[in-house]
Amino acid sequence: MTREQAPAGQLVETVISPPVIAAVAAHAAAKVPGVVRLEPGLRGLAGSVTRIARQRIKGLEPAPTEGVRAFLEQDPPGVRVEIDVALSGLDQAAATAQAVQRAVSRAVTEATGLIPTAVSVTILDIEIRGGLL
């Protein structure tokens, strides 16, 4: 949440909800080289179905957030992001996960003004293509 002064001296409050932060993070993570896809996992599937249903009832088109969860924290104020990914077997997993952390942190800060206190990346799958193993 940010507060800004309006021209007439009025205080304007901007509220950024966790699904918006998750959508920004999902978009940034998906663009990182070596990320094959975001993986929703069991917890993510349940939350995603509920969120999509609520948004469709309101007539909104939901932004893709599968595999990403964002949490607003009060003390200290900040945002925490969790991302579940499938990676390419062609890249080093740790380096790709760190690249995801940097990309998501930068994108969330640029889009919302909030600096993530943590960006956790869980690798759920590594795709090996071409029969190398």
UniProtKB/TrEMBL annotation:
Q: In terms of domain of life, where is this protein from? A: Bacteria
Q: Give the family from UniProt.
A: Belongs to the asp23 family.
Source organism per UniProt? Amycolatopsis umgeniensis
Pfam families the UniProt entry points to:
Asp23
Q: What is this protein called?
A: Putative alkaline shock family protein YloU
By its UniProt entry, which InterPro entries does this protein fall under?
Asp23
